[in-house]
Every structure is written in structure tokens, then in C-alpha cells.
Design a protein that fits this description.
Strand content: 25-35%
Number of helices: 8
Number of strands: 35
Shape: elongated
Helix content: 10-25%
């Protein structure tokens, strides 16, 4: 649903001292994406008129890391949430509503916010939660069931501390009243800050309706103040992603040992074993099987391909019915065709491997084009770097590269050529020929192996 009279304001200026990190708190990641990016995406899904982000601590790092288009609002002194909205006032329209969100509340979702916006009407709406242990949170104060104010933990008396309904900080405010309400905020409190929560009592005093919506699950409104809370939300996020994939037909051997830090498109009959990590944008075709302990980042895998255990693939493509690994590494710009075999302890980067070709053992292939149905013997190395420049190796169709061959680029191996094991190839290998480069084998007849003195 579009909200043409809605402005969204995301507060993201805090230091986050309890994170014990030089990284601004809102840039710590959930599911491979900064917490602030999660909140911005949810805000943008509402299709508001504007999305403003109040930044302060680490503002340059925040700007550099966040890719979404937002309006940046700088709060040089962090004097509280009320002060942050005061700073943002010149960027808000005179009418309509402002939805206040937080850059460290990453799992807030569109459904919750749509419900909150509907409840606001022409007045105020705030999102609350009910906790068994509310210590540390601002309490929602009600009289005869109606919200009359919010009191912060450090300012609460014993009766107020017994209240279990807490303020999440997420609220919808009518812009027409904001100048007056924000102008009345005082910092005579235990924190010495200007609390945005004080506008609730001001709204009640002005006869403006204040509606409270209780969040349907605690984690949707949970903030992150330390690494433990970050970890807890990460696991909730990953569990939800795993459940969606299971519902869509993927087989996960153990949903509790699965991490998706990006997006995953998939076909039918996909099987993923334990402790596999997906990053960036990944695409898996029909019948793909990923064995345990693999890492895949920005990859496209064709139908029926099997990625064996402990393989690492990044920024690459693999065709259909291929076999990769175990213990294989495909680096950026590796492009493997259908029915390619890549075995253990093989590394391939910036190379094309043609249909049906095999690179099965202990081999490095870099800056290389390999044709169809070629076999690269164990221990082969394409020597593509002279210390300054990279050069390409061209290997044709139906080639047999003997074990332990060093291919010193730039070099070309013609179709159906064969290289002898242990050769150092520095010149063109003609098609249909055997090319080898070896020193003559010599046996020293009178040589005696040294032995330790047994006396």
C-alpha cells in the first residue's frame, strides 16, 4: 500500500558503546546486511513520500556503506530522541504523519507498520510490547485502559516499574502538532536528554487520540545494544529464512545449521546439507545438491549439478550436471560449462572450462580458456603472472595435459594435443601432437646415501 502523506524518520545517530566496536552500531549486520539497511528496505516498502535517516556517530561510514536512496539528516550532538526529531523538523512536511523507526531495530516488518499506520488515524499510534522482564525499558502508563504517557526506567517509581507493557519507540505522529510538542520538551530527567516519548503526554493533554498496538512477536520490535542481542536476532532471522525455503520445497538437512546472507533463487528438488553459507545473490537450478560446509557467494548453478563438501565458490557460474569438489575453490569470473568435473584441491579463477572437460586434482587454472572434453592432469599449473602482468593460456578441445605440467602464459595448446607429464610448456603445442619438455634422466651408479652413525 502506498502512503503519499507519510514521512519516515529513522533514528540512527547513536554510538552503540556496548557493542565494543569501532563500527557504527547500525552498520552491524543481520543476514549479511547492515541493520540500518533492513530498516530502510522496510520503510521503502511502505512507499512513503520521504525516508529520512538521522545520523551522527560514524556518519561518514554510514553514508559510505548504505546504498539505498534516503535523505541524510545530521545530528552532531546526540541529545536524545526528541532532539533528533527536532533536528529533522525542517525536512518534514507541515501535514501528514511521520513514522519514527530505529536503525538498530532490524526485524520490524511491513505488516506491523501497516497495522500501526491504520491505528493512528488522525492522531498518534505507538507500538508496545509486553515483557516478563521489562527492566530497562520505558513503561506505557495507562489510566482506565487509555494511554496517558510513557515513563523511562530511570525516572520510574516502584509502581511504574511493575508495569510490563513497554515502549518500543516506534510511533506515528501527526506533523501538524510536532512543532508545538517538540518545543515543549524538557531535559530535566535522569538522562539529561530530550525524550521523544514525552510527546505522548503532550498529545493526551491536547486531546489527541493515542492508540497503542502490541507487537505480535517480541523480535519484531527488539533493538540491538550488544553482540548477544545481535546474535539472538541473527538466529531468529536465519530460522525464518530457512522455514520459508522449506515451505518452498528446498530440502535442508538441518534448518538450524543454515545461513543465507543475501538472496537465494532455486528450482525443484534442491538439497542443501549442513553448515552451508550463501552470500550475495545465488541461483540454484533444479536438482542441485550442495554438500556440507560449502560457501557460495554470487553464484549461478545449473540443473543437476553437485557441489561436494568444503567447496568455496564466489562470483562464478557452473553449468548443468557438473561435479565440483570436495575442497574445490572457484574464484571470480570462473565460468564452467555443462558436465564439467572439478576435483579436490583445484582452484580456478577468471577462466572458461568447456563442456565435459575435467580438472580433477591439485591444480591451479587462472586466466585460461579450456575447450570441450579436455583433461587437465594432476598438479598442473597455469603460470599466468610474471610479477607485473597477467597473461592467458589457451587450451583447445580434446586436449590431454599430463600431470605436473607447467603452462607458462601466454601459451596455446592446440586441439587434441598432449603434453608429457612434468613438462614446462613455454611455446605453442601443435594440434594432434605430443609435446614434452624434460631433462634427460640420469642414474649415479656409485652414489651412496648418507646414513646416521649407529655407534
Amino acid at each position: 500500500m502506498s502512503h503519499p502523506h507519510l514521512s519516515v524518520l529513522i533514528l540512527a545517530a547513536g554510538r552503540g558503546t556496548r557493542m565494543y566496536s569501532d563500527l557504527p552500531k547500525v552498520l552491524h549486520e543481520i543476514g549479511g546486511k547492515p541493520m540500518l539497511s533492513h530498516v530502510i528496505d522496510t520503510a521503502l516498502s511502505l512507499q512513503p513520500t520521504t525516508v529520512g535517516v538521522v545520523i551522527g556517530h560514524g556518519k561518514d561510514a554510514v553514508r559510505a556503506r548504505i546504498s539505498q536512496t534516503v535523505q541524510w539528516i545530521e545530528q552532531d550532538q546526540q541529545l536524545g530522541t526528541g532532539h533528533a526529531v527536532q533536528i529533522a523538523m525542517p525536512h518534514l512536511p507541515a501535514n501528514g504523519h511521520t513514522l519514527v523507526l530505529y536503525g538498530d531495530v532490524p526485524l520490524i516488518d511491513r505488516t506491523t507498520l501497516e497495522t500501526l499506520l491504520a491505528a493512528a488515524g488522525d492522531g498518534v499510534a505507538l507500538l508496545s510490547d509486553v515483557l516478563d522482564h521489562p527492566t530497562g525499558y520505558g513503561r506505557i502508563v495507562r489510566e482506565q485502559g487509555e494511554i496517558v504517557g510513557i515513563v523511562e526506567e530511570k525516572d520510574a517509581n516502584a509502581a511504574e516499574k511493575a508495569i510490563r507493557e513497554i515502549n518500543t519507540g516506534v510511533m506515528v505522529l501527526p506533523n501538524a502538532h510536532l512543532p508545538a510538542w517538540l518545543g515543549k520538551l524538557q531535559n530535566a530527567n535522569a538522562q539529561g536528554e530530550y525524550y521523544l516519548t514525552d510527546v505522548i503526554a503532550l498529545a493526551v493533554a491536547d486531546g489527541v487520540t493515542v492508540s497503542g498496538i502490541t507487537v505480535r512477536a517480541h523480535h519484531l520490535a527488539a533493538g540491538v545494544n550488544n553482540k548477544l542481542q545481535l546474535f539472538e536476532l541473527e538466529r531468529i532471522f536465519q530460522k525464518e529464512q530457512a522455514e520459508k525455503l522449506l515451505g518452498a520445497g528446498i530440502t535442508l538437512r538441518d534448518a538450524n545449521r543454515f545461513d543465507l546472507r543475501g538472496s537465494l533463487q532455486h528450482g525443484r528438488d534442491v538439497v542443501i546439507d549442513v553448515n552451508t553459507v550463501f552470500e550475495g545473490d545465488c541461483v540454484l537450478g533444479n536438482g542441485v545438491e550442495i554438500e556440507a560446509h560449502c560457501v557460495l557467494k554470487n553464484v549461478t548453478i545449473g540443473d543437476g549439478t553437485r557441489i561436494k563438501a568444503f567447496s568455496h565458490l564466489e562470483n562464478c557460474t557452473v553449468g548443468a550436471r557438473a561435479t565440483i569438489g570436495p575442497f574445490a575453490r572457484l574464484r571470480p569470473d570462473a565460468a564452467l560449462a555443462d558436465e564439467v568435473h572439478v576435483g579436490n584441491f583445484v582452484e580456478i579463477k577468471k577462466s572458461i572450462v568447456g563442456h565435459g572437460s575435467k580438472v580433477n586434482h591439485l591444480t591451479y587454472i587462472g586466466d585460461t580458456d579450456i575447450g570441450q572434453n579436455s583433461n587437465i592432469g594432476a598438479g598442473t599449473i597455469t603460470c599466468n603472472y610474471d610479477g607485473v602482468n597477467k597473461f592467458r593460456t589457451e587450451i583447445g578441445d580434446d586436449v590431454r595435459i599430463g600431470s605436473g605440467t607447467m603452462l607458462v602464459a601466454p601459451v596455446t595448446v592446440g586441439d587434441r594435443a598432449t603434453t608429457g607429464a612434468g613438462s614446462v610448456i613455454t611455446k605453442e603445442c601443435p594440434p594432434d601432437k605430443l609435446t614434452l619438455s624434460r631433462a634427460q634422466q640420469v642414474t649415479v651408479r656409485n652414489w651412496k646415501r648418507p646414513e646416521k652413525n649407529k655407534a
